[in-house]
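The protein record filed here:
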Amino acid sequence: MDAVTAETPSPDTLTVDLGTETGPFHGGASGTLYGLYGDGVPSRTLVEGMYVRTVTTKAQDGIQHPGGDALEILPPFVAAGGRDVYVYLPDFYRGFPYEWPGSTGEERLAGFLEVVRRQVEHVLTLGPDRTPVVYVPFNEPEGNMFGEGEWSHDGISWRTDPRHYFEAWKAAYHLIKGLDPDARVAGPNTSILYPEVRGFLEFAKAHDVLPDVITWHELSSPAEVRTNVAKYREMERELGIGPLPVNLNEYAHNYHVSVPGQMVQWISAIEESKVDADLAYWNIAGNLNDSAVEANKANGQWWLFNAYGQLTGNTVQVAAPRPNVQYTLQGVAALDRDKRQARLLFGGAAGAADIVFEGVDPDVFGATVHVRLQEIPWTGQVGAGAQPLRLRDEELPVGEGRVTLSVSDLDAMSAYQVVLSPGGNGARLLPASVAWRRTYEAEDATYTGGGYAKNGPEGSPSDVDRFATSGGYHVGGLRTGSDGVLAFDVEVPRDGTYEVSVFANSYNQADLVREFGPTNVFLRVDGEAPRELRLPLGYKWAVWGHTDTRVELSAGRHRITLAAQDPDLGVTKGDAVVDKVDLILRDDDGTAVYEAEYASLDGGAVVSHAHRGASGPGAAVLPREGTVTFWVHAADDGEASVNVDVLGPGEGLLAVNGEPVGPVVRGAMPLFLAGGVNKLTVTGTSQLLVVDRLRVGPSHDLLPSTAYPAEEGALTGSAKVTGYPYATGGKAVEGIGGGPGNALTLTVTATRAGRHALTIRYANGEQAPATHYNPDPVCRHADVSVNGAAPHRVLFPTTFHFNNFWNLSVPVTLEEGTNTLTLTADELPDFDGKSRNRYGQRSAYAPVVDQVTVTPLS
């Protein structure tokens, strides 16, 4: 008998046909349902850098959830580049199904139409600024107002007998259009594209009440996105209507959201269908559907949408190895002939793949292409992430219009980006971002002591309601009273400083966590060098963030332990689960490089490949008023050393997060960057300015920075100093707010007049009672007044516990010498300026304040 030899499976092939264009890039997948809480949560920088096109949110003053009031989020959303605000009118009520008052269907509908009337009247006060508003009269009517349950109109599903729903739709439509003939109305907003939608369209056409935008939900799969959009377009053709704009205003599940390798599959289907779509709201409001961390930090999903939003030109045909099949390799690509640049986003499968570009036009790319390959890793739902990792930077020949890039070690949870540019221009090729890295699963580690629990499986293709988890399992046992030790046996290739990233979670409402806040554990390497780590809090179990530290390791084997007790440092308080540990070795000096030819261009700026010896394959050429914008990561709030590398003469101005900081100089500039994502924009002020790249490196301590403990400030009214173990000095100030008389005032000093950053270290654990699966944390606010001037209102997102402190930076103008800063708060009224929310969804208080640090912006 012949021996049977096991064969290694051949890699998947993903083919990008640059010769077959499929229409202008649309960008519709970057929508959000309840992703905006209010101005600043998330920051305008995060909203703009995610290229959010549409937002769906509640009616103004609605009581379904805290925050997300339509007319409060509209101005900052539009200022950040947003296009449409879809207003869920039934979210004026609580409950799901909606608890609309009335003893009969007629009473309920009459009351609801009065709600609709008030909403339109509110919107009309905006004048021409109301253009972005799109009214959604009914949401999932088959399971709510016109379903079979207790809170339905008549207990009969409209899918069985549509008469009441159709008449209600007609009444709401005429009411809205009667008050504002220019208004846009969207519907039917069903939970899926039911066959009965055809009957709705027939009725709407016959009675001249067709929606301006067709909406339904795709809580399904990317395959169904393509199938159902095609099915709807066929309905339009058969009925002789449209084509109308489509918004799939709820899409994806917990298992998908936050995971770049999952979301790129949805993005490819949505972009191919050329429709808008909004990420579903499964968790908390104001974090861009698990894309934003704190107020201004990004996780891996955010960086994926940032890359997606920077596609330009026309999309091109992408042939996946298993077309339209979820949990397999998929992609979306665009070609910009003016930039002479093609970009591909792909992911969804592990292992190896051949990425084949066909139709590579020599008139666009030449005989050699420059290839930049980046990885956008999963960093957890509440885990901040840096800019995409550079994996490869190389030049490849073009043979018969084809280029093949073979890749290996793909991670199914990561997304990847390939950027193709003309090669052969002497570009300096850059090394990979990391020299070495490994992942160690907690379920594979050794556990000793009591209380061990292996939890899972978590989210999977067969259980999409659960959260994505590395390896599918996680480990519990490190909690109050435990003697548990979780040991990871690692082996590293050489001596060096290694980053240790512990992916973990503590549910903020769990009994042992509610008492004290973040769970502390103790890390040692080979039994030495003990240190205390505080693990991330989350809004549910298995919501992953990461705590990072650095260790010195020699080449060879080591044991890294996480323990609930340490003989030198103390004991664990809380209850944590651990998913994995990542170990990373870097070779660089901490300087990040952002190429101008890959950045966002406007105002007539173009990409040029005529500058030999540029950092990358090209440079950005700015005319007067032309701009190049970089989206820059900073790990923490504080000074960074920034170089704008230019080629030849030319002048320009630099702005950081909309704040002008002065002319572009040759050399390093010390600038204050906010922790998370920063928008750095260079504007040409001469006839020509050629920008090669932006380099962002560690601080040189050139900006004077002073911290002022809150407990040393002047307190009035109910504001008082209270002990908080994780505050900087063990104390912080609470009770600010509930009226302007309850205030904290600090006296601070500026060495010169001008713009400064106030970095407020705060905690906010307030949470309102929820009606269903969404936790409802409440953003507190502070009215910050400088030297007695009119106050500036600042929103502070939840930190998940009052003993968990984060930073939030606010730009202010200070005078040279002594300045006074006063923080107060009071409950904000509804839109009419009189009524108040009766469910504790608008807090009257500022957050607990630990300290305020003052730093010049530049």
